[in-house]
Amino acid sequence: MVEVTVARLGLDSATNSYVVILREKAGRRVLPIWIGQPEAESIALQMNQVKRERPLTHDLCKTLIRSLGGTLRRVNITRVKKNTYFAAMHLEGPTGLVEVDARPSDSIAIALRLDAPIFAPETLLTAMETEADDEAETGKGADRGEPELSAEQLKAYLENLRPEDFGKFTP
Hints:
This protein is an alpha+beta fold. Helix content is 29%, strand content 33%. Helix 1 runs parallel beside helix 3 (104-114) and helix 2 crosses helix 3. It is globular and about 40 Å long.
């Protein structure tokens, strides 16, 4: 297993799906995982340190883990089967270590909130091409040509979201 970090989050315009790009901590290989809109928004909120008036589901999970005396030791992206990624959260609590099956998107959102490391198998990581590196630096790439929002733009957009806006993420 190789430690990875969340490198970026974008919209794949070809599939109109969100994608989180994990990059190996000490290298250039990446792992793109397509995720749902609520999880993408939750990850974006945490990455940009946007605080909501009421806790979101992943904030609730963080509070539950801590309130029960637990610690999220690590998240492992374990495998992919039929285009579905699997993950496991390794939680340590008063009764010992517990491995919990979870979706990668939820695991990543919770790991970011609890500052827990994320790992992926070497077999899932792919080498990033030079062109992709150039695109990532210009704010293009995973979202296939659409510019990435600045932290300030994203923060302003997310702070003004209303419940009826979910499903229409078009800043």
